[in-house]
Amino acid sequence: MNIYLFELKNQWKNTTGWIIIFSVLMFVLCMGVYPIFNNSLQDIVAVISKMPAEFTKAFSFDLNSMVDFGGYYEFIFAYFSLMGAVMASSISLSIFAREKKVKCTDFLLTKPISRQWIFTSKFLSGLTLIAIFNIIYMVLSCIFGIYFGKSLEEMILASSMMFLTQFFYYNLGILVAIFSKKIRSVSNTASVLGFIGFILSALYNILEIKGMRFLAPLKYFDPIQFFTTTSNEYMYMLTGIFLLILFLFVSYAKFNQEDVKAV
């Protein structure tokens, strides 16, 4: 319990900062930008049409779907998911790589606590923070979605994709932290993990190679499936869920069996 509470206290300020940033951005983009976008659609179409097709695909511009709030939500989710991935990765890297960074892993493991309990306490502390963040994110998404004509069920399901995206990157961050000899910069490593996913998503959008989507983690959990009856996303969702479970089990096994060099 001490480890759990310590990690919560240590990461709470960082998580609060992310909550504030997301809340402000969601309000600005949904209540400020979207009405203007809807009222100026013809002018925006004229500007976007002059841009290279590859550019618009890479940055998820689909004006046909963005007329509806569901399509607009998918568009902003492409960037929110990137931020959420960086946030989740930074939490897991901070929690699981701290002892390696300050070279006190051997000291932690000499305590009368099993490795299994150490891992579980650390894991649950980060998961708690992500859950709190996603409750707030879901509430805001539902408020804005219902205001623009979407049902509560649609918005709950669509916003839940943020939790799955973050859970994927949270477990990926744990895997990287445990298998790395040392994490020099948590923020840099988390940013790299997030932007690699974003670049792979952009490449998939440009090339439109169906099988390539399995390599783009930010595309595993797409909210658009809940706003249309023609989308079939379940294979990608199952892939993402399988991988995040695999990351967790591999990390757990490595953490419990790894030899630690005394400093």
From TrEMBL:
<feature type="transmembrane region" description="Helical">
    <location>
        <begin position="234"/>
        <end position="253"/>
    </location>
</feature>
<feature type="transmembrane region" description="Helical">
    <location>
        <begin position="190"/>
        <end position="207"/>
    </location>
</feature>
<feature type="transmembrane region" description="Helical">
    <location>
        <begin position="123"/>
        <end position="149"/>
    </location>
</feature>
<protein>
    <submittedName>
        <fullName>ABC-2 family transporter protein</fullName>
    </submittedName>
</protein>
<feature type="transmembrane region" description="Helical">
    <location>
        <begin position="155"/>
        <end position="178"/>
    </location>
</feature>
<keyword id="KW-0812">Transmembrane</keyword>
<dbReference type="GO" id="GO:0005886">
    <property type="term" value="C:plasma membrane"/>
</dbReference>
<feature type="transmembrane region" description="Helical">
    <location>
        <begin position="16"/>
        <end position="37"/>
    </location>
</feature>
<feature type="transmembrane region" description="Helical">
    <location>
        <begin position="76"/>
        <end position="97"/>
    </location>
</feature>
<dbReference type="Pfam" id="PF12679">
    <property type="entry name" value="ABC2_membrane_2"/>
</dbReference>
<keyword id="KW-1133">Transmembrane helix</keyword>
<keyword id="KW-0472">Membrane</keyword>
<dbReference type="GO" id="GO:0140359">
    <property type="term" value="F:ABC-type transporter activity"/>
</dbReference>
